[in-house]
Amino acid sequence: MHIPTLLSALLWCTSLLPAFVKAGEGGSFVLINGTPYTWQLAAIDSYQMNAWSFPSLISPGGMEKVYVEWDQSIFDDAYDDGGWVIYGLAGTSNQFQLQATATGNTYNTSFTLQVYFNGISTANNPQGSLLNLGWVHDGNTVFILSGTAGNYHSINPPSNWMQNSLPTIGNRILRHLTIPGSHDAGMSFINGSTFFGSEDHVLTQTLSIGGQLARGSRYFDLRPTISSGIFKSGHYTNLSVVGYQGANGQSFSSIIDDVNAFTANNAELIILNLSHDLNSDNYSSLKQSDWNNLFVQLFALHHLFVAPNPTTVDLSKLALRQFIGNGQAAVIVIVQPPSDPSVTLGLWQTQGFYNATTQFAVYDNYSNSNDLSYMSKNQLNLLEEHRLNYNSQEFLLSWTLTQQAIDFTQKDAPSIIDYGNIANNALFTLLPPTIKSTLNIVFPNIIYIDNFNRSDVTALAIAINDMVNINDPAPSSTSSTSAPSPTSTEIVSEWGQCGGAGWDGPTTCATGSICIPLDEYYSQCQPP
User: Fold this and answer.
1) CA dist., res. 164 & res. 327, Å (int)
2) CA atoms of 293 and 224, how far apart (whole Å)
3) What is the helix (H) or strand (E) element at residue 465, kind and residue range?
4) 87 phi/psi in degrees, rounded to 5
5) Is the pLDDT score of 512 beyond 70?
6) pLDDT at residue 482 in the model
7) Residue 80, exposed/middle/buried by CB under 10 A (0-12, 13-18, 19+)?
């Protein structure tokens, strides 16, 4: 009388057997061919991998998303899982090997994908080197190879990737280049906040400006806020009922130190974009005197770039070589229209500070959505609409997901960093197919993300530069100009330093202002 029950139990157990036999972590291996050569599969093998099948050919400019699954069956030792595949580059002697490896023991196994540069060298990856690419369960692990024979680029680009790329892209104007950028770049930690300014809702980055620079970011969204009289990065929202809510992040003095430390060893172009100014001590806009004090502080940046005709130049029409072709870094400060419309750059416009509207106009329109499908379609549609050709206005691809009201009411709602990881994971599969490298060339100028903690975004930007076929003529001038150090014979600009302990610069203020001691070490020209 118990036989049917026993048979049912056996059948039920049998139905679960495939899951125990085949179950394993799965994810995608995203391969991006930024070279002009077809990748040809030369050999492939695996052991105990549930999924390890690769396309025989990957065309130039192509992207392939390969599903990979490990074997974590109770009948097998997962730490024995492994696989490899070799691709050769058609028409060359170059090849590389992609590998899947597992380490650990029966109770604790970790997985990784890696690349062995067995028959090729790239910038920062010599031939014979082995590079760990990581592993993202249910996500994308990325490998990118771009460039041409003898001048390849890949994952793990050098910290001076712009300088390294000068031979191929040095003559291109900024409108003809792609660079990676950081959204709300100074918000990697909280340095004072309001009641509702929690980490989940204000932090956009996990690395300092220095960390982001090291991973290749070159465009930084900085939002100056005065907090207890100190200039800090800010991330605030003016809510209808409770007013301004948010937090402060990395101080501008720390940001300046990070930039100067980086440019001491890396001759790169760095763009600091200032916007969304706020005095959080009284929740008002920054006044002219506040901006002047900020400019004085930012004047401590080394290698401030003063362009020819600095008050009228369109920076987007200068070639990369004109900024960094002399082997020195170039730092430019872009100022978006301040909240107070009466504020002007004044004489700072001749010292490496530029008007965003007239001197570095960028199309920047975020999607204001927490839905990946909507955001990605919206941004890629905007790219198609506004980058009609490679001479169109600079375009910022705002690849960010924005928290909505529901995210503030649900306990387990994603943080800004969580949303950033979701968006960044999808970038490598959604953006490459939209890049048009010939004829009607379409590509973004700035790839703008939250949580810039990975250098593969930089590798993607480099690959786009390698794929896009633009040959600009050599610029008439190939040297950049740093903001000059003041001499004792000069007249101090309207808001410049005019004295203080150790000061050996000019002490005569411009007509209409006087030298006022602010402390023992610093005196500044100000209206009487």
Assistant:
1) 11
2) 12
3) helix 456-467
4) -115, 135
5) no
6) 59
7) exposed
Partners of 178 in the β-ladder: none
- Which pTM does this prediction carry? 0.88
- pLDDT for 405-422, tens place per residue? 899 888 889 999 999 999
The structure tokens listed for 72 are 């974590």
CB atoms closer than 10 angstroms to residue 36 = 18
Could you count the other beta carbons within 10 Å of the beta carbon of residue 237? 15
Mean pLDDT of 93-107: 89
What is the residue whose two structure tokens read 């973004």?
Answer: 444
Locate 331 and state its tokens.
Answer: 């730092």
Partners of residue 114 on adjacent β-strands? 99, 132
- Give 89's strand partners: 39
Residue 1 is predicted with a pLDDT of 47
Walk me through the domains of the chain, giving residue ranges and CATH numbers.
21-154 (2.60.270), 161-467 (3.20.20.190), 491-526 (no CATH)
∠317-454-407 over CA atoms, to 5°?
100
* Residue in this structure with the two tokens 């998303």, named with its chain if needed: 65
pLDDT digits (tens, 9 = 90+) for 259-302: 999 999 999 999 999 999 999 999 999 999 999 999 999 999 99
